[in-house]
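COMPLEX REQUEST
Ligand: iron/sulfur cluster
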Amino acid sequence: MPNNKFKCKKCGECCYSPRLSKKDIKRIEKLGFKKEEFIEKDFRNFSYIKEINGYCMFLKRNKKASCKIYKARPTICRLYPSKLINNNCKAEKLASDKLFGK
Ligand code: SF4
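STATUS: Structure written out below.
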């Protein structure tokens, strides 16, 4: 569930390589992107959006951050944040991500 009290400051700190479902991939493909342009797989064969300098390739960084594919953004981006850790916008990494240095 998204955190309804959260007020986004558009810092972009949450936008690191989100994991993609099949529906997310189809939505992004409909924008004209080919899978090989935006997907990278991990050792488990899970799909993520490619990173540029440690952040999602679709993150646009100006004074305020924005998403280049906002209307087609992945489900996990729509739900974020379910909770904030130490009031910090850094994305909530999964235990398995921490384990493998993601
Ligand atoms: S798809 Fe958009 S909202 Fe999701 S991480 Fe990338 S830039 Fe951020």
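REMARKS: The pocket of iron/sulfur cluster is lined by residues 15, 18, 49, 56, 58-59, 67, 69, 73-74, 77 (CB under 6 Å). The chain has four helices and six strands.
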